[in-house]
Amino acid sequence: MLVRRAVLGDAHVDAATAAITPETADFQSFITRYAWGEIWTRPGLDRRTRSFLTIASLVTGTHLHELAMHVRAALGNGLTRAEISEAILHTAIYAGVPAANSAMTVARDTFAALDAEAGAVPGAEAGASASDPGADPGADPGADPGADPGADPAADPGADPGASASSHPRTSS
């Protein structure tokens, strides 16, 4: 129960415990013993890495009802918002774009809820700028992050100046 409380927080664990019924008692005991007592306490991976894997697994299985809780937990385990977003983006290739699109919405809404709870500026992480903390401060904020910075847009007069040969069309859902 200590690891479950450390990862998910006392409020979540207290609410889950208070909601136990005779019908759910065995299941709650099972997940407490195995997920939190056996798997999350193993020495082979740190909690940060386990959070990465958990997010990818939840996206893959489209278990979005669990994702917000684990996005919060991942932040507590040392992942940044940018890393969580990258994990979801990476998972899109292997689990499918629709699952990742839904997961990105859950992550965005969770970040917004955390900002509202903290009275913070939306999108800002503690100690980081509201934009990508690893971004080049001199870079054009409207530029395609996948574009080749050395490409000459004048080489193709019909080309989009922000695009490169490696750019992919973007869609939104």
From TrEMBL:
> Which parts of the sequence are annotated with region: Disordered?
123-173
Can you name one GO molecular function term for this protein? peroxiredoxin activity
Outline the extent of the Carboxymuconolactone decarboxylase-like domain: 26-109
| SUPFAM superfamilies from the UniProt entry | AhpD-like (SSF69118)
Gene3D superfamilies per the record? AhpD-like (1.20.1290.10)
Q: Spell out the InterPro entries in the cross-references.
A: 4CMD/NDH-1_regulator, AhpD-like, CMD-like
Q: Which residue windows does the record flag with biased composition (Low complexity)? A: 123-167
Q: What is this protein called?
A: Carboxymuconolactone decarboxylase-like domain-containing protein
